[in-house]
Amino acid sequence: MKRRKFLKAVAPVAIMPSLIDKLSFKAFPSPDILRGLTNSEIPNDHVLVMIFLNGGNDGLNTVVPLDQMSNLANARGNILLPEGQLHKIVDKQIGLHPALGGFKTLYDEDKLQIVQSVGYPQPNFSHFRSTDIWASGSDADQYLDSGWIGRFLETNFPGYPNGYPNPDNPDPLAIQLGSNMPLLFQGDSAQMAFNVSSPDIFNVNVDPTSDPAPNTPAGEELTYIRTITGQINDYAEQIVSAYIQGSNAYSGYPAEGTNYLADELKAVARLIKGGLKTRIYMVSLYGFDTHAEQVVAGNTGTGVHATLLKFLNDAVFSFQRDLEQLGEADRVLGMTFSEFGRRVISNGSVGTDHGAAAPLFLFGNKVQPGVLGNNPVIPSGANVDDNLPMQYDFRSVYASVLSKWFCMDAMTTDDILLQPFQDLPVIKDTCSVSFDPLDPTGGELKVDVYPNPMVDRVQVQVVSPGGYSRLEFFDPLGRVVQTRNLGTVARGTYTYDLYNEGYSPGSYYVRVQCGSHQQVKLIQIVR
Amino acid sequence: MDRQAFFQVLTQRRQRAASGPMTLNPYSGPWTETQAIHLLRRTTFGFAPDQVDTFVQAGMQAAVDQILDVSGPAPSPPVNVYSTTAEPDPDCAYGTTWVNAPFNLALPPQYFQARTDTLKAWWAGQMLQGDLNIKQKMTLFWHNHFAVEADTVQIAQVMYYYLAALQANCLGNFKGLTKTMTLDLAMLRYLNGYLNSKSQPDENYGRELQELFTVGKGPGSKYTEDDVKAAARVLTGHRINPFTAPLSYYFDFTQHDTGNKTFSSFYGNTTITGKAGTAGANEVDDLLNMIFNTNEVSLHLCRKIYQFFIYYEITPDIEANIIEPLAQIFKSGNYEIKPVMETLLKSEHFYDALSMGCVIKSPLDFVGSLVRQFKGVFPSPVPDPLPLYLTWGVLASAAASAGQNLLDPPVVAGWPAWYQSPLFHRVWINSDTMASRLILINSITGAGYNLNGILLKLDPIPFAEALPDASDPNVLVEDTIIQLFGLPISQATKDYYKSFLVQGLGDAYWTAQWFAYVGNPNDPTAKNAVTTRLNAMLREMMVQAEYHLS
């Protein structure tokens, strides 16, 4: 049981000591009961697509600070990009790499957010350690065994994988395509990712035997393998059916087989269109560890780094256009990240060594567009060890995604990230639904509750216009005590049961949200 | 209670329930198939039933001694099986080795990769066909420890020297091996040592030498960022000469930093005196002497050995009763590897029931067990070695598609299965990689696994014949389970497996089929009848989770 759930369950106790005994037996309900109570707490159908730039992307040659050109020329003359080829954002004094023309277009269309100098204090220069720090959301000197996405999903889908898939959650919670970062998806107790990189999973059919697993290390590993095998059976069909029902709309994708990142994002777009309810997709672009031959000497706008950024540019731009034409762009947010940037000073091999802070991109219809932060300052006599100081902790970006995109409340966000982080204005606020019990307005949505007053159970009848729906139960102090995610429902009439989980008598509210409509009903609890 | 504390409580609860004898005392319990199979599973890439018998007969001491006897001759090096008459390899004729070839930019570009591919196939071949001892698994351990990626190095010759050095020293001296690796051409290229110079020091190798290869990141390891920089300065000047055939190492003292290098209190504030001229190369020895003087090297290595050969979880008990005494043996034995392995493989703890069946087979283990357990027959290398290399290559690719690309680990830390907490070897198993295992099983027990013109099909008969009594379906199922699984199986499940042999017709039906085959082994109808039924049963067993444990 998650600490937050526990606190939520015991919250009324603080003001009503007489209920302690009644509630105590509920402190550790079985996962099934817990899921019935809470289901997913994510109040929308939003999707996050993460793009890992594997190897450490050179931020200074990705988002070039135009006001630092002369010092950059001193520090990294052999890899300095020709200023004339940069895609300039003049008022921000930055120039995007020559390969990032599509990113510039998205910026001009208010669909791109560039966060400057994202990193963490005491940067670590080891690839795998720094990757672990980004994946886990740890401090530099802290070793965590779980990842921030793993904790986020586990908080919202408690008990996973036991009892999954289920009617509310028929699909994988997170999918990695051509990517393998298990720590990112590791919860406190479960691995939340489903990996899809080849069509093999669609051709497997296994009848697992069910001899009980012994209570030994071998038994634990046995159970793990059985679970994964079961997921293949369960999820492959869902993915195939979404893929068949889905489609792509944009015709400008790179030709298949020429840009694997674009191929993967194209598949993601199709799955989203096909109705797969997966929340997180992760893809990777490999090869950013450009110690040598990062650019072609004498033609620095070309070379390995340019090729990689062109891959990224074409893939992201096509994906965004596709989502727009498919009508899905409002619910998809993209984010790039990399384990570190690179040194200010280039090396003798026309490359750059491991560095620290670097810019990060967020893209989509709902980003708060712009450039956050200032240009990094390049010292005039840069030293070989010089690294850029961070302006924003990477976990502030995570906090913004959790709170503004997935609408986690502040306490939950802190709990997932293990400490509070500053929220950044990088995503438009998609969460604030003003709740005023005294002004329950609603369009075509009609909600009735019976019986009212209630004792043990109330039936909530919803005449729904359809859409992504959610039902909440508020206590007299306006706190949510129960949440039911109803998923995306068709127009029609539905009935749901709510139970009195030991609440004290008083005035409670049932709130139903279907798409943009909401209705609130007052209900009395009596003994 | 925060998340981490909560998690620890959960794991400790399970450990208490499952703690067995935690000593390195010599094992003196029963020596049966169970123990012999455990030893073979953990130290080889698969074994057939008759080989198990030999190891049972030998007794524990002799069995372990045989596993640790790696004195057999090294195989001849990999050869050119890729060039065509129209486009010959300018450095070596078809069928001869390329390993001594110079670095030749005139080589047709596709042959750079082709050589690496033959090297991968060649090593896979030794895992799949080599002597039944620890040599290849121990070499894999060192490859994972001193990880190098062929894809980055791109010169197959130096990858061969690297691999040959690991094989030759797999049970030798670890300190010596560390020096060999420090100056190894593939390693120099992989971690940029060949670019490390006094004017532009490159910290890459100096960092990994400490973080991964020697003292590690354990709780007692307190080396500093300045130690990384100092080590990098010590290591300046080591170079690759690409103009010799074979490629060679040399020391360029003009690129060596001759200043003194001072280390932190973790290394006793040691100062390594800078040396001018060719003597600068000897600073490597000063550096390794300093590093190997700490206790952390032996602790770090014994933890990794433990996690590779026994289980990933190192509890405080195991740290105190297994790791620490083993580390003492290692350090006081001047870093000889063999005594450490011998102590571990002959210990009570190794044969504890709780140490058995709890390791998830790596993809290479999985592929190896498919081939060796069923006595897979390989093409002859003469007159044309190509079919043999293709067969090895198909099996290496199968392991790669299940997540383990030999000689191309994902990062310098090796494969995540051997370092990534908390999943460790569970990393081998995700929907993708498990599916690829299941597909391979389905194919080889069915119509065959077809890749690059090579068709792999399982012939289950040699396996069945090597068991005590294949005519009785109950005994056959029982014995097959012992060979394939490390966990007890219920009677209901045994009956389920048997149903694939008898197909609802009673035991006598199978017995008659088997004797029909034995009486007339060349009759294709009789042979086919038992083959298809055996394969159906084996398929059903191999897709189960139990089969993927070691």
Q: Would you mind describing this structure in some detail?
A:
The complex is a heterodimer of chains A (527) and B (550). Chain A contains twelve helices and 21 strands. In chain A, strands 1, 5, 6, 7, 8, 9, 12, 13 and 14 form a nine-stranded mixed beta sheet that branches. In chain A, strands 18-17-20-21 form a four-stranded antiparallel beta sheet. Helices cover 28% and strands 23% of the residues of chain A. In chain A, helix 5 crosses helix 10, helix 8 crosses helix 9 (260-273) and helix 9 packs parallel to helix 10 (304-326). By secondary structure, chain A is of the alpha/beta class. With 550 residues, chain B is mostly helical. Among the domains of chain B are: 1-27 and 295-355, no CATH class; 191-294, no CATH class; 363-403 and 420-456, no CATH class; 461-548, no CATH class. Helix content of chain B is 51%, strand content 3%. In chain B, the strands form three sheets. A two-stranded antiparallel ribbon of chain B has the order 1-2. Chain B has a two-stranded antiparallel ribbon with strand order 3-4. In chain B, a hairpin with a 6-residue loop joins strand 1 (238-241) and strand 2. In chain B, helix 2 packs across helix 3, helix 4 (109-129) packs across helix 16 (363-373) and helix 16 (363-373) packs across helix 17 (386-401). The longest helix of chain B has 21 residues, at 109-129.
